[in-house]
Amino acid sequence: MVSRRAPTMRDVALRAGVSTATVSNVLGNRKAVDPELAKRVLEVAAELDYQIDRAASQLRTGRAAVVAIVVPSLDNPFFTGFIAAIERAVQGEGYDIIVSSSNSDEVQERARISAMLSWRPAGLIVVPCSDAFPARSLTDVSGVPVVAVDRIAGVGGISSVSVNNRAAARLAAEHLLGLGHARILVCASSLLLANIRERCDGVRAALAEAGLPAPAIVEVGLTFDIVPAILSPHLISPDRRATGIIALTNTATLGVLSAARDLGLVVPRDLSLVGFDDYAWMIASTPPITAVRQPLDGLGTAAWELLKQRIASPAGEPQRLIFSCQLEVRRSTRSIGPSLAAGPSA
Amino acid sequence: MVSRRAPTMRDVALRAGVSTATVSNVLGNRKAVDPELAKRVLEVAAELDYQIDRAASQLRTGRAAVVAIVVPSLDNPFFTGFIAAIERAVQGEGYDIIVSSSNSDEVQERARISAMLSWRPAGLIVVPCSDAFPARSLTDVSGVPVVAVDRIAGVGGISSVSVNNRAAARLAAEHLLGLGHARILVCASSLLLANIRERCDGVRAALAEAGLPAPAIVEVGLTFDIVPAILSPHLISPDRRATGIIALTNTATLGVLSAARDLGLVVPRDLSLVGFDDYAWMIASTPPITAVRQPLDGLGTAAWELLKQRIASPAGEPQRLIFSCQLEVRRSTRSIGPSLAAGPSA
DNA sequence: GTGAAAGCGCTAACAC
DNA sequence: GTGTTAGCGCTTTCAC
User: Fold this and answer.
1) Cα→Cα distances A134→A118, A137, A147, A160, A161, Å
2) Is residue A91 in some structural domain?
3) Nearest Cβ partner of B286 from A49, A279, A286?
4) Looking at chain A from residue 28 to 57, which residues have their Cβ under 8 Å from any Cβ of chain B?
5) Are residues B91 and B80 located together in one domain of the fold?
6) Which residue, of A294, A309, A331, is where some domain finishes?
7) Are the beta carbons of B73 and A55 separated by less than 8 Å?
8) What pTM did the predictor assign?
9) Is residue B346 included in any domain, yes or no?
10) Per residue in B238-255, pLDDT tens?
11) Chain B closest CA to A297's CA: distance in Å?
């Protein structure tokens, strides 16, 4: 296969015996064109497998049919699920997505956003890797519409979509409380993240209302493999350890599961577990994991809708959309029995 | 925030008191420029947060610093892991990725590739959704370098990277055989996919060499939720059912796990399971799942290397790279005990 | 070593 | 309803 040049609009025009303007009008159905001519143009275009050159089109119009997405990681199903939802949403409206990972690093985040902006995208959807979102300034100068997602605490004045983290965590806590658990441990990824802090608050509030002391909160980091080492000390003492654990992210959930197993603790017999996020493996797991489900698809769709609003009227008021989460009760949580509540006395 | 125009090279040139040619030369460090001038240009560029307009740059040079990626699904961690690996590889070489999902549909695949091509990307990496890869013709006419990944059976004459599926499956089968299993069931996603058929062949070959009859092969589809219903009939009869199952994809692995649980079968006591692909949940699972690990990162890196070769010399010989997989022995497989081998007789 | 100017492929005025 | 033409922001000769 010889490397060849893609056909241009001029090629199509020549072959169809019309001007490039007419080709452009037909292909972009912009102005009325004689049906006969239009047909011929379309035929020739198909024949040549003509594809418009978006760089040229964009340069001329100033509009780009692409939305840039920046997330902290492409190895986390939460973020890729979110991207998948956006891709579904922008499909059919003729937009493509260009995606990039900040590797949970502010410096890289800034660099990636900067690179994305050089495409002059129609808009930018970003899951900031920190509350501060320092790269925000970049988007201000470029004038590209932005929607921030998920970690939006410190982010004022721009559209955002997120989840009611307090309520979500409260759901988990109240479920455990309702089952009779009083010693509850919270397994948090990083307390540097406002959404995680909000989830902690939600648990705290629920416990406080129930007249219980504040929960222990353990910070386990962003990757799953180190969790067991960090968590073990909190799980060894049979009479002091928590009976219920709330894991605040999918990674933390995985970590709790393997920590428990390493310690010979059986879920839910020895330990009730509520996870966060909702994936196939949680359902296939034995036992299936009770979890707080974030409406990934809704978040993606909403991010795109909000972005479209900003694109249509950049001067309009930024919107904040907050979704609720749902608790999926499965089998990793159980009502606390006498053996757990009061030791072997009963 | 008022919508504003991004600064152009002209803005930088004016402000720095030089020509746009000089700015271009400095920023692209293309030609030697007086250090004094260069410094000033850089300063002004930073001051204005100047970002080159890639559409304009690309239109002029004909080269685009973007690689297009098309995969069957963005909801499958195998594909997103692969994308993550590519993203890591192209980072730092100044390339961005634009990604798209074919939803495992040939028609959509063609449409998506066609759309990708209109960006005139430096190259295209595609995981075809079928062996035929009918959209290939598109890439031929556009002259965009292509690398096909994973499902490459019917794909001749282009560079490709894949895995030795026969050998991989053989690894799984021989492991089970070594543990004393003789009744082995293969849980395949779709036999329409050549890579899946190759994996079946691998299992078959291993069993044949061991003098055993061919394994039962059950086709369970591409999504996880329907697997239990399809699999159950094969797992009910205690004395006729397989003692070892090989699940040929991560989705199939999940399906087997939940089917077994629904039937009250305990892994590995009642059933040994070897999965495919290797994810965090397999390690966190109880028991941890023995699995054939595909070198995702290697596949991604290799795809990019091969693509770079094609970009550098489009007329060169296409390369085919084939990776081997590794068996991660964990605890979902066990040596077959008397109770399983011969019923309760021992 | 620097600048002037042409032109990449397209679209939007504008003329006809 | 169609064609001519200017020009989007950049890179790349080509003069100087």
Assistant:
1) 18, 7, 14, 16, 18
2) yes
3) A286
4) 48-49, 51-56
5) yes
6) A294
7) no
8) 0.93
9) no
10) 888 899 999 999 999 999
11) 11
Find the Å distance, CA of residue B21 to C1' of nucleotide D16: 15
CA angle B340, A266, A205 (to 5 degrees): 155
Q: Which residue type is seen at B185? A: L
Read off the tokens for B171: 């690894």
pLDDT in tens, A64-121: 999 999 999 999 999 999 999 999 999 989 899 999 999 999 999 999 999 999 999 9
Q: What domain count does chain A have?
A: 3
Nearest to A100 by CA among A126, A123, A64, A131: A126
Look at residue A173 and give its three-state secondary structure. Answer: helix
Residues 6+ apart with CB under 8 A from B159: B145, B146, B147, B148, B306, B307, B309, B310, B318, B319, B320
Structure tokens at A16: 């169809």
Tell whether B111 and B187 lie within a shared domain.
no
Is A329 domain-assigned? no
When scoring A73, A80, A270 by the number of chain B Cβ atoms within 10 A, the one with the most, hence best to mutate, is A80
Alpha helices, DSSP H, located in B7-164: 9-16, 20-27, 35-47, 54-61, 77-90, 106-117, 136-142
Q: Are B52 and B27 in contact (CB under 8 A)?
A: yes
Chain A residue with the nearest C-alpha to that of B224: A280
End-to-end Cα spacing for chain B = 80
Check B118 against A51: CB less than 8 A apart: yes
Q: What number is the average pLDDT over the span A182-187?
A: 96
Nearest residue (CA) to C1' of C7: B60
In one-letter notation, the amino acid at residue A43 is E
Domain match, A36 and A100 both = no
Dist CA A283 CA A74 (whole Å) = 22
Tell me the backbone φ, ψ of residue B243, rounded to 5 degrees: -100, -15
Asked if B303 and B125 touch (Cβ cutoff 8 Å), the reply is: yes
Structure tokens at A298: 């809704």
Same-domain pairing of A235 and A136: no
Note whether B279 and B179 are same-domain residues.
Answer: yes
CATH of the domain at A144: 3.40.50.2300
Check whether residue B77 and residue B96 sit in a common domain.
Answer: yes
As a whole number of angstroms, the distance between CA A202 and CA B194 comes to 50
- Shared domain for B286 and B300, answered yes or no, is no
**Residue A73, phi then psi, degrees to nearest 5:** -160, 145
* Domain hosting residue B276, numbered range: 165-294
Instruction: Determine the residue type at B73.
Output: S
| Residues A112, A24 share a domain | no
Look-up of token digits 């069957």: B72
CA distance B215 to B177: 12
| Residue that is written with structure tokens 């991207």 in the block | A83
Any domain includes B248: yes
